[in-house]
Amino acid sequence: MNATEIASALAWRDKRVEFSGTPLTEAVALFNRQNELQLFLRYRSLGELRVSGIFWSDDPAGFARLLAASFGVTAERKTKHEIAIRRAP
After folding, report:
1. 62, 73 in Cβ contact below 8 A?
2. How far apart are alpha carbons 31 and 8 in whole angstroms?
């Protein structure tokens, strides 16, 4: 295998991001820097939640769904380019 083939085979690793007790504000900022689809925290206090795990950096919608399932928040698609994350009613 040459260097180009190795780089191609390992390219999927560049799309992974790992958080370990990372404040949600930092995690959201990372997703927003890398994607057209933006995540918005509707309550400042949500930013204090701590997130751990390995995620696909090019899947902000999947990350938002995981937040909804794990933290009891809602993740609502507002526009083609925006997902609002807020406390569940």
Report:
1. no
2. 23
**pLDDT tens digits, 13-68:** 568 899 999 999 999 999 999 999 999 999 999 999 999 999 999 999 999 999 99
pTM: 0.82
7: in domain: no
CA distances from 16 to 6, 43, 75, 80 (A): 17, 27, 21, 23
Determine the structural domain holding residue 75 and report its residue range: 15-87
What radius of gyration do the chain's Cα atoms show? 15
Query: Residue 85, CB half-sphere, CA atoms under 13 Å: how many?
Result: 28
